[in-house]
Amino acid sequence: MKRISRYLEHWPSLGEGVYIAPGAQVIGRAEFGPNVSIWHNSVVRADVNFVKIGENTNVQDLCMLHVTELNSLTLGKNTSLGHSVVLHGCKIGDGCLIGMGAIILDGAEIGDNCLVAAGSLVSPGKKFPPGSMIKGRPAVVERPLTPEEIHKISNHYKAYLGYKDQYLRMEEEDGTDPQGSGKKS
pLDDT tens, 97-144? Predict the structure, then answer.
């Protein structure tokens, strides 16, 4: 199944070493830096605005990323989105960890090196400073993260770089296109 597709005249732009897992869909004005990974059954729908994902960032299984005409979506570098995260027209900084099932809505901004707890709901337009532990429904800053926590969170992405490389090697061995055209080499 084809993993990348255009919206009108816009095709995704994929950096070197990008992996798009089977079942994932990347549509339209999506721009991925090097080593981005989009995992099984995630959707990046950059139709009415753009989605930009920074280098080394991973979007784990079942995530939904979308935009509005007024709100693009930007994900910083070295960031991890846990399973089933929903991002809608928001900005996420560098080195963040967004917990499983979190929802971040239009115009919200998460600063660098933040942890958004699993299941949290970030209201539209809400802005959070760097280095924050963010949790709740609606989400609030629970406390600043310690330097040790920031170090751990901002390095979480590294495991997914290894997984991505393993999957890329397997697709190469199987003769399929790792960026998702579905073509055999």
Answer: 999 999 999 999 999 999 999 999 999 999 999 999 999 999 999 999
**Strand ranges inside the chain, DSSP E:** 4-5, 13-14, 19-20, 25-32, 37-38, 43-53, 58-59, 64-66, 73-75, 80-81, 86-88, 91-92, 97-98, 103-104, 109-110, 115-116, 121-122, 127-128, 132-136, 139-144
User: Is domain 4-174 classified as CATH 3.40.605.10?
Assistant: no
Structural domain boundaries of the chain?
A: 4-174
Query: Which of 43, 54, 144 shows the shortest CA–CA distance to 93?
Result: 54
pLDDT 10s digits, 21-51: 999 999 999 999 999 999 999 999 999 999 9
Residues forming a β-bridge with 132:
144
